[in-house]
Amino acid sequence: MPWPFTLSGPDFLLFYGLAFVGCLFAAFLLKAMHVSLVSEESFEQRSELEPYELTFLSGGPELTLAAACARLETNGVLDLGRKGRKVQATDTLPEDAHGIEKAIVSATGKSGKASAAALRLRCKKELDRLKRSLVRGGYLLDPSRSLAFQALRVGPLVLLGLVGVIRLLRGLSNGRPVLFLAAFLVLTVVALIFLAGEEHTITERGKRALRGLKERNAALQESARSNWSALSGRDQIVATGLMGTAVLSESVLGLMSSMRRSQGGSGSSGLISSCGATCGSSCGASCGGGGCGGCGG
Amino acid sequence: MMDQHERQGQLGALGVGWRPQLALEIERRQDIGFVEIVAESFPNGHVPQAIMNLRERGLPVIPHGVGLSLCGAQPPSAERLALLAKLARHCESPWITEHLAFVRAGGMESGHLLPPQRTWEALDVVVENIERAQAALPVPLALENPAALFAWPSDQLSLVEYLTEVLRRTGAGLLLDISNLFADACNYGVDALQVLDRLPLERVAYAHLAGGVACDGFYSDTHAHPVPEGALDLLRELLARRPDCPVLLERDENFGDLASWHAELDVVLTAQASAHRLAAESSGVA
Question: Is there a contact between B128 and B164 (Cβ–Cβ < 8 Å)?
Fold first, then answer.
């Protein structure tokens, strides 16, 4: 048998542990290098992001759909119920509705209802359009390039895992102790799920854009925290893009949970950290003058 | 060092009390010339990015204290003075403002701005407190006349005598609260026009205007209701005497109705424009 299969048990574990750490380090380093390399290229010149481009950049498809549903709910076009499990159209769309809002209402079809999973599926075209726009602008990595780089990032860890599995099977057939190696393999699987699970990667340009927008829109965030209902629909979408789920109502948060569950719980929800359900009940539409100060943003 | 006239010129004509609920409206309204922040709302001496953005745009930011208790028997707190000083430096403020009121006594907080005793003895203490504060602050202090919740039976000086004497002895500026003067006129029969005639109006850093409501025959300066016509008339009287006086609109509650807030700002601008026009006409300037 070739090396490293000829290593003794403890030596193999040491090799595996070091190689595992090395693979993770290389994966993160590759991502950082890829992101910064991409940012040096010239892209479509943009002066500002549209509100739904901002929500997609900061929180991906889920936050974008949530923001659009929140707007439609505020306008009385949608009813999300208390827990947001189903979406029901209750009124007609205004003429100046955005494409994503039209797609959501259209997703409810003749029945006027749609599940969270169906919503995401039927809005894919509009969501992909937003993604392509952000890729053209250099704010998100090109998905096709991302795939190649993903393969480069996870490949070594996959190979290491295979080596570990082979060693595990050999150990089992020889009646040797394999508990520590099994634990390492579980860690490897978890790491692979984490590395492979990122849906979209923001570039340095994208991060700078988000930082700049947050700074320039500080006043909007103050008003969003303390006087949400006084904001225009457009301002509410921008606030959602800047502050994430902290400003969403309980029903919209419930819808986001349903969407995540329908995706098998995989995928990153984006860069904005959310307060989750603990914040939802005290934020968003119910905030009014009381503010969402405790939820950060 | 800048003199009082130069400091007054630093402020735009129209100011607003900055509140988080109004942050976006303040940022978007281009005719706002200065903002006031409640100092105690920023206990670590740093203001949020939204206010710094206004500052970067060139808007003066004025720390307005509510807890110094200058008219109390105790000297002003070193910690509170340090906070005001820190905010003024951080925001490069031309003024710091506080109230001619007391808010604590005997170890108890009143929770409200209470009127000073207008006696000569009490005045000496107040002047000493103001001088201590001025020594500790990096920029000039302007003092606001509060609305009296009650009247002391032992008052020796009238409101205008008291204010004039404080200003004379301390050299401080005056933050003339028109709405508080209106409240005193409603509740205690103060002759507001006489006050305006006799005050050294050149010492007014800027004026406050706010809404209020009468309840059970007592007018309260709530900062949550529409500005009454009587207070607006008094503002026009002030502007007739001092057309260049900056005016700041205060609102602390009722932020759902932003249209009325904008409308009140427009009324102030109209009053100021009218005063300027009349002043130009009366001086024969084309």
Answer: no
* Spatial distance between the Cα atoms of A41 and A37, rounded to a whole number of angstroms: 7
Closest among B34, B40, B29 to B17, alpha carbons compared: B34
Q: Does A211 touch chain B (CB under 8 A)?
A: no
Give the chain A residue nearest B23 (alpha carbons): A219
Distances in Å between the Cα of A52 and the Cα atoms of A49, A238, B123 are 8, 8, 61
Number of Cβ atoms within 10 Å of the Cβ of A290: 13
Select the residue of A220, A230, A291 nearest B256 (Cβ to Cβ). Answer: A230
Pick the residue with more confidence: A247 or B142? Answer: B142
CB-based contact B89:B81 (threshold 8 Å): no
Residue A81 has pLDDT above 80, yes or no: no
Inter-chain residue contact A289 with B258, CB threshold 8 Å = no
Identify all chain A residues contacting B23, using CB atoms and an 8 Å cutoff.
218-220, 222-223
- Residue A113, SS3 per DSSP: strand
Q: What's the whole-model pTM score?
A: 0.80
A51-65, A79-93, A167-181, B126-140: which range is least confident on average?
A79-93
Q: Is residue A219 within 8 angstroms of chain B, CB to CB?
A: yes
Contact A166, A158 (CB under 8 A): no
Cβ-defined contact of B20 to A235 (cutoff 8 Å): no
Of B21, B25, B52, the CB nearest to A289: B21
d(CA A14, CA A7): 10
pLDDT of residue B7: 65
Distance from CA of B52 to the nearest CA of A (A): 9
Q: The tokens of B183 are what?
A: 């409240």
A59 sits in which H/E element: helix A51-74
Query: What are the pLDDT digits (tens) for A127-156?
Result: 999 999 999 898 988 766 667 777 888 888
B239 to each of A28, A155, B245, B267, B283, how far by Cα in Å? 66, 77, 7, 13, 15
Phi, psi of B98 (to 5 degrees): -150, 180
Buried b (16+ CB within 10 A) or exposed e, A87-99: bebeeebeeebbe
